[in-house]
Amino acid sequence: MTKKPAAAPRQPAKVVHLRKGTTLEMVRFACPDTSQAARISESFGLAIIDTDGIRDLHERLIVETASSLNEGLGERAMQIHLQRIVGAYVGSAHGAGQFYSRAVTEARDATAKVANDVRDEDLDGPVGFDSAAQRKREFAADMALQSHALRMAAEGAVAAYEQVVGERWKPFERPLDNPGQTLDRKAAQVQMAAFG
C-alpha cells in the first residue's frame, strides 16, 4: 500500500474589502421623481422643469462625446472613460439629493415648532418678510428641483453608457487601503512617525 503525501494546508482566501460606489438606485431614493418635482413646483409657484429634456440632452451629449472619441479610444478605454463620467453625474445627483433631504428635515422641524407653540423667532416678520419656517420650506423646494434636475441628468448619462458600452453601468468599487484601520489610527501613526 502506498501512502498518499499529505496535502498542503489550504491558505485562507484573501478577502478584499471594497469601498462601495454610489448607485443610480441611491440617487432615485434621495432625489424627487418627476411627479413629486411637479407637485413641489406647483405648490411653491416655481417653474416646471423639463425633466425629459434634461434626461434626453445628457444622454445625447454622452453618446455624441463617445462617438467623437471612438477613433482615439479602444473599447476598454472608452468603457473606463465613460464609467468615470457617468460616475461623476451619479455622484453629483446623490450629493444634491442628500442636501435636499437635510433641507426638508430642517423645514419640517421649523414648521413643527411653529405649529406647536408661538415663539418670537417663528412669528411672521414685518410686512413683506417671511417667517424663518417659510424660508426653510422655500429653500427645500428649490433644493428639490435642483436635485431632481441632477437626477435626470444622471439617468440620461446612465442610459447613454448602456447604449455605448452595451452593458448596464455600475459604480466603480475601489479596494480599501487597509480596511482594519480607521482614519484616526492612520493619522496617529503618521503623527507618531514624525517624532522619529
UniProtKB/TrEMBL annotation:
<protein>
    <submittedName>
        <fullName>ArgG gene in streptomyces clavuligerus-like</fullName>
    </submittedName>
</protein>
<keyword id="KW-0614">Plasmid</keyword>
